Recover the amino acids of this structure.
């Protein structure tokens, strides 16, 4: 499918899983003795804040005549109102439909004629827009971004909303409704969070709420959230700092500051009062079980330890669950574990698809055993080194191309207040020891959880039920 | 509650009305009212490729890119699923999958352990024309990583237990095909275009029937026949001295023994059949997976550049006609694309989209209209945009070591000239409107179009019949006709 206007829900990671580019910097980190403290290169990043509040983040690299522009708005599906789920992402689509000086369709045609590509992504915490292009086209991308940041509404109309509503409904059909197991994620969220919690609905939203979105919602959302004082702009790649900053001031400086943003929802960490076991019938051949725990929020020390817990459990053939369930007993087709890092609190998940004939309850009991073993005994030094080395290599892989660097700078800036956070991020991992694996597993994976079994139609009896907890 | 889809003309009219209230929302800033004129393009300087050949026939292509201490290795075996024996579909891909599942000195777990400990990436795969082994490593780990790479390439053991384990995995994957209409459509389309006798008509990962019959010896035989240095090119891109890395590779792979590799069997594709709609039932599907296309051209075609430009207009990037009409005007889909698959022999071309069930027939009519329209003269601005897009994409195509290695694969496989990428821009810019129209008329023929639709038959069949685009043949997910 052509790239475009992606949902980017955090359970699958954001900058860390950007896959398009080579591991630019992994080598520098890994040049240190394996298993020892890793050295992370410092990337030169400058941040300038304009009078209207727009944060401008600049990173020059002249290796290839290419530049990336990346705009980050601090609004995501977690800021939506009940009854309007999916709106932040629908709005993202509408941002490509032209603005006061950009007729419908020109945003894309002008960029393509200049050799550029663009996209946007939305998750629970933020919305991003980006362009990559030959370096001479930088002024075009900046002008397009400034025009829609400052002057979107004069040409906004019902037709733009209605068209993108249909596109987004088809995105939902393609990526969720018409996918096997496609409704798992929203089913888990609804069970894991209390009604009304900003993470209790999926970023794609419900069909009914998408239908309900009105033109006044578009206008209100833009006036509330789309202002320079709620955004940051990264330019990364082959450009000259002084001329680019002068151009940014000229294009964005005249956009008035918006009203004070409403306080973002900040609910207390969720504590489940009991384990929840759910079953969902779907048009699938094989049962799949997913475990979800609430876990540490993004960029904390526990968040780093849980990244490694996930890898010890399910990354690579030697990981605990893969080795036992896919390699040795061959009761499972695949297994994944991930720490889905988010601003308000994260989700740790394990997901496993059965082989034909495997009994979910029996396999689930083995998963419980392996989790319990990790909680009791932690990881071996070799497991720890493997996980950390792979993770740091992968993390720095995400900083290879200009676009993925830009995304990381904006993400760090939102979460920590500084774009220059690569070294501190890596330092979280350098500071860990095998004992932290056990501690993190014990702190989070012994808490109450949601367990969802997706089963073939009419096979609800295959669900995993709570037993001896 | 669903809003009706909006056509572009209505959107444009509404836009004009919207302008009346411009300026009310925000104070007018000093932003220019027209897009900026752009300065001169900074030319991409392509790093040179150093070529050599070892005595055993292994070809080397080395590109030094030393801005970061990283190296990518990409071994291209010039045989893939096209060389699968007719009743052994899936053997090339299974052979590739098994390379890193155990060698004579390392178990699968040993390989995985070292890979993770070193923080390197090792991958194996096969397509129709080639099998590949890739290694992505920091320079600091080069020795250990290369030893692992060489072991996987030279000494796979294909142990019976590993073979059985991966065969079970493959059989389960094939069972799961039933869950995915998109995958079913991608398997049925080549089957109806090429027929079952042509290698391109069979899925690279086989069928349940072909996989059931595969033995460990089939895999060992495929490996022994095709994984030969005189049938391979090793691409190296990164922080290396070409002469030094060539010497190191000679030491590691110089003992790999050459052998005669059988030539490619040439099977003529079946004569183009009259247009047909092949309908596969997927009850309850929320969308219909639509594929429409026919035989295309081989990689060696002199029409390559005109076809690339033509397809960029028809179904390449976001503003191409298929996406603009089906998505951005009608809202029937999240996206639509088309592409020519250039292979050693005549590959297919196809348009593809996932269409909301209720609009399956309308979308098919639009696809047919666009396939007809591309045969008519293309406006100059649209042609220019497509050419500019292709040329100016070059820096993005060569950004990283991994990107550059990927660009060299077709050079290794199809014998492209050494100055191929240096001359790429001028070849694209030389394509005229007449060239585009000529290749569109030659390849995009609405009379011999094979349309595959996988969707909820009870909801879409009557509408499809009413389009009168072509007769409907019902098929199962193995492309066999069904009542």
């Amino acid at each position: 499918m052509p790239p475009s206007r992606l949902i980017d829900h955090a359970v699958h990671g954001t900058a860390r899983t950007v896959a398009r580019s080579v591991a630019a910097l992994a080598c520098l980190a890994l040049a240190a003795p394996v298993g020892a403290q890793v050295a992370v290169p410092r990337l030169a990043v400058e941040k300038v804040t304009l009078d209207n509040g727009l944060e401008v983040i600049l990173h020059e690299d002249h290796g290839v005549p290419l530049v990336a522009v990346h705009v980050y708005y601090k609004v995501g599906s977690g800021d939506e109102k009940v009854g309007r789920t999916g709106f932040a992402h629908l709005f993202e689509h509408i941002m490509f439909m032209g603005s006061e000086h950009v007729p419908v369709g020109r945003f894309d045609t002008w960029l393509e004629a200049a050799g550029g590509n663009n996209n946007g992504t939305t998750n629970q915490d933020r919305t991003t827009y980006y362009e990559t292009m030959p370096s001479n086209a930088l002024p075009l991308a900046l002008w397009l971004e400034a025009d829609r940041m400052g002057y979107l509404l004069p040409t906004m109309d019902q037709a733009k909303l209605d068209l993108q509503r249909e596109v987004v409904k088809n995105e939902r059909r393609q990526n969720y409704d018409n996918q096997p197991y496609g409704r798992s994620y929203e089913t888990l969220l609804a069970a894991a969070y209390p009604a009304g919690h900003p993470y209790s609905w999926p970023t794609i939203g419900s069909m009914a709420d998408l239908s309900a979105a009105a033109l006044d919602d578009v206008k209100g959302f833009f006036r509330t959230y789309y202002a320079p004082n709620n955004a940051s702009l990264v330019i990364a790649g082959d450009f000259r700092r002084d001329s680019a900053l002068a151009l940014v001031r000229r294009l964005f400086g005249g956009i008035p500051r918006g009203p004070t943003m409403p306080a973002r929802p900040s609910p207390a960490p969720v504590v489940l009062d009991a384990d929840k076991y759910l079953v969902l019938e779907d048009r699938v051949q094989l049962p799949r079980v997913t475990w979800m725990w609430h876990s540490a929020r993004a960029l904390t020390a526990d968040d780093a330890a849980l990244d490694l817990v996930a890898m010890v459990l399910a990354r690579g053939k030697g990981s605990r669950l893969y080795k036992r369930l896919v390699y040795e007993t061959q009761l499972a087709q695949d297994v994944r574990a991930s720490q889905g890092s988010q601003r308000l609190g994260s989700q740790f998940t394990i997901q496993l698809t059965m082989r034909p004939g495997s009994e979910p309850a029996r396999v689930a009991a083995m998963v419980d055993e392996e989790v319990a073993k990790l909680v009791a005994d932690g990881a071996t030094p070799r497991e720890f080194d493997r996980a950390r080395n792979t993770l740091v290599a992968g993390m720095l892989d995400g900083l290879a191309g200009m676009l993925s660097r830009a995304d990381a700078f904006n993400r760090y800036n939102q979460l920590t207040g500084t774009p220059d956070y690569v070294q501190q991020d890596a330092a979280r991992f350098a500071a860990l020891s095998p004992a932290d694996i056990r501690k993190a597993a014990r702190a989070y994976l012994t808490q109450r959880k949601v367990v969802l079994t997706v089963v073939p139609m009419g096979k609800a009896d295959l669900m995993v039920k709570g037993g001896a907890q | 509650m669903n809003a009706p889809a909006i056509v572009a003309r209505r959107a444009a009219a509404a836009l004009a009305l919207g302008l009346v209230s411009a300026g009310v929302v925000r104070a007018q800033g000093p932003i220019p009212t027209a897009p900026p004129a752009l300065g001169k393009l900074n030319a991409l300087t392509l790093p040179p490729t150093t070529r050599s050949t070892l005595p055993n026939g292994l070809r080397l292509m080395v590109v030094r890119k030393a801005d970061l201490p990283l190296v990518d290795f990409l071994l291209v075996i010039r045989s893939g699923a096209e060389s699968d024996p007719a009743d052994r579909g899936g053997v090339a891909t299974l052979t590739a999958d098994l390379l890193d599942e155990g060698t004579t000195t390392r178990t699968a777990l040993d390989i995985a352990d070292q890979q993770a400990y070193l923080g390197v990436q090792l991958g194996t795969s096969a397509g129709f024309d080639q099998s590949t082994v890739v290694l992505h490593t920091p320079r600091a780990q080069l020795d250990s990583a290369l030893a692992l790479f060489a072991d996987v390439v030279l000494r796979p053991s294909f142990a019976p237990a590993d073979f059985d384990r991966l065969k079970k995995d493959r059989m389960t994957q094939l069972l799961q095909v039933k869950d995915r209409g998109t995958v079913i459509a991608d398997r049925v389309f080549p089957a109806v275009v090429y027929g079952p006798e042509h290698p391109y008509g069979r899925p690279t990962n086989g069928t349940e029937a072909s996989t059931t019959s595969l033995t460990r010896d089939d895999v060992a035989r495929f490996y022994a026949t095709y994984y030969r240095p005189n049938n391979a090119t090793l691409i190296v891109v990164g922080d290396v001295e070409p002469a030094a890395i060539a010497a190191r590779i000679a030491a590691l792979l110089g003992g790999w023994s050459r052998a005669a590799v059988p030539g490619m069997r040439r099977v003529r594709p079946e004569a183009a059949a009259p247009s047909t709609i092949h309908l596969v039932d997927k009850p309850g599907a929320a969308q219909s997976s639509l594929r429409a296309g026919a035989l295309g051209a081989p990689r060696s075609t002199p029409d390559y550049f005109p076809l690339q430009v033509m397809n960029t207009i028809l179904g390449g990037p976001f503003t191409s006609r298929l996406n603009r009409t089906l998505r951005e005007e009608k809202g029937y889909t999240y996206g639509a694309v088309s592409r020519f698959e250039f292979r050693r022999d005549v590959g297919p071309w196809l348009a593809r989209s996932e269409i909301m069930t209720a609009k399956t027939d309308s979308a098919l009519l639009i696809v047919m209209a666009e396939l007809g329209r591309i045969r008519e003269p293309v406006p100059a601005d649209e042609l220019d945009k497509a050419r500019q897009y292709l040329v100016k994409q070059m820096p993005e195509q060569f950004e990283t070591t991994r990107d550059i290695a990927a660009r060299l694969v077709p050079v290794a496989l199809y014998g492209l000239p050494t100055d191929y990428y240096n001359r790429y821009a001028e070849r694209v810019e030389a394509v005229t409107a007449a060239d585009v129209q000529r290749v569109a008329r030659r390849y995009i023929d609405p009379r011999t179009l094979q349309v595959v639709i996988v969707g909820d038959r009870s909801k879409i069949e009557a509408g499809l019949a009413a389009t009168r685009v072509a007769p409907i043949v019902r098929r199962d997910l193995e492309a066999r006709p069904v009542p």
